[in-house]
Design goal:
This is 3-isopropylmalate dehydrogenase. The chain is built from twelve helices and 14 strands. It is an alpha/beta fold and 358 residues long. It binds nicotinamide-adenine-dinucleotide, 3-isopropylmalic acid (IPM) and manganese (II) ion (MN).
Length: 358
């Protein structure tokens, strides 16, 4: 059977370390199911800036478009932090998301039973949490025009961005969220700031209108500030959350602490046609880069989401997730999750262990 074409974008910081581990595990899991992969490596972020001066070289976008799927680790780092916004590594990532129209960012925040006591929150609060954050990814304040720097009437220097959504943009992400809710607990919470922002008023109106097509889904609305609080007070309230680009960014990092580490959260960014982007929620972790300390589990589970959503090889996805589950069962923990009574492992060691377990 034909090899699955995967564009591999390791990026910066811990990116190459977790990508190394994930590719090994993915290859091993594929072998067990008779599936093979053709990995095409490409540059993005700081690594691409250093090599070409551009955080998203044309060649990289072409390779991604010609692939079945894109596996991305993380971009960014201290070295590029002083570049102007338009030339930063982050622009490469945003350009890739926009270039592939990957508007629906699915960020599951699940607390594995083995980690129920790894959260800074009480075990009773986080035990059994299973949330899906559906984050709009190619609109909102990240992309709105006008943006830039200027001068106000008083002559002070200003920076500005525009939070903007069109009705079709809200409608398409709402449909993704309602459809996801139908396959889960059938509860959808739309998170916005409609008590203050016009962009959120429009968001809410459109979500309410779209809800008529999904009468089996119970819809609720929450302001972002309250949602940030409820996520800690009673995370089990949430089934599917749908929200805009920046609120989804913040809520998903917050949600990672239910499981105790940002290194546990995978994501899928999909358009519904063409290749999706599969990447951990976390960044390049420059504070621990190059030390073999990173947790590769979010990366491995992102590869699992790729197998399920894009490559349609659910058995390989099952193997990857089962291997992570077993490693947790065996008490193997990278530094982010290590505590008394568990076994401290390096990123590469955990990768090798997962290869044995798939
Ligand atoms: P970060 O997510 O990189 O790190 C935040 C904290 O979590 C750090 O202490 C880090 O060590 C820890 N952490 C993150 N992932 C981990 C893992 N897998 N295992 C163990 N610990 C982990 O966020 P930041 O420090 O705010 O940003 C660093 C850089 O990453 C910035 O340049 C930022 O723009 C970029 N970033 C990129 C992405 C992406 O590529 N998708 C996402 C977020 C941030
Ligand atoms: C994420 C990251 C990115 C975002 C940055 C690096 C552009 O924080 O994937 O969550 O804000 O979307
Ligand atoms: Mn983020």
């Amino acid at each position: 059977c034909k090899a699955h074409k995967v564009a591999v974008l390791p990026g910066d910081g811990i990116g190459p370390e977790i990508m190394d581990a994930a590719l090994k595990v993915l290859t091993a899991a594929g072998r067990k199911e008779g599936e093979t992969f053709e990995f095409k490596h490409a540059l993005i972020g700081g690594a691409a800036i250093d090599a070409t001066g551009n955080p998203l070289p044309e060649e990289t976008l072409d390779i991604c478009k010609a692939s079945d799927s894109v596996l991305l680790a993380a971009i960014g780092g201290y070295k590029w932090d002083t570049l102007p916004a338009a030339q930063r590594p982050e622009r490469g990532l945003l350009g890739l998301r926009a270039g592939l129209n990957a508007f629906a960012n699915l960020r599951p925040a699940i607390v594995p039973r083995q980690l129920a006591d790894s959260s800074p929150l009480k075990k009773e609060i986080v035990e059994g949490v299973d949330i899906l954050i559906v984050r709009e990814l190619v609109g909102g304040i990240y992309f709105g025009q006008p943006r830039g720097f200027g001068t106000n009437e008083k002559g002070d220097r200003i920076g500005f961005n525009t939070d903007v959504y069109s009705e079709p943009e809200v409608e398409r992400i709402a449909r993704v969220a309602f459809e996801a809710a139908q396959k889960r607990q059938k509860r959808l919470c739309s998170v916005e700031k409609s008590n203050v922002l016009e962009v959120s008023q429009l968001w809410k109106e459109v979500v309410i209108r779209v809800a008529k097509d999904y009468p089996d889904v119970e819809l609720s609305h929450m302001y972002i500030d309250n949602a940030a609080m409820q996520l800690l007070r009673n995370p089990k309230y949430f089934d599917v959350v749908v929200t805009g680009n920046i609120f989804g960014d913040i809520l998903s990092d917050e949600a990672s602490m239910l499981a105790g580490s940002l290194g546990m959260l995978p994501s899928a960014s999909i358009s519904g046609s063409g290749p999706g982007i599969f990447e951990p929620v976390h960044g390049s972790a420059p504070d621990i880069a190059g030390q073999d300390l990173a947790n590769p589990m979010a990366m491995v589970m992102s590869a699992a989401m790729m197998c399920r959503y894009d490559l349609k090889i659910p058995k390989v996805a099952d193997r990857l997730e089962a291997a992570v589950d077993q490693a947790l069962d065996q008490g193997l923990r990278t530094k982010d999750l290590w505590k008394e009574g568990t076994t401290l492992v390096k990123c590469s060691e955990l990768g090798n262990k997962l290869v044995e377990l798939v």
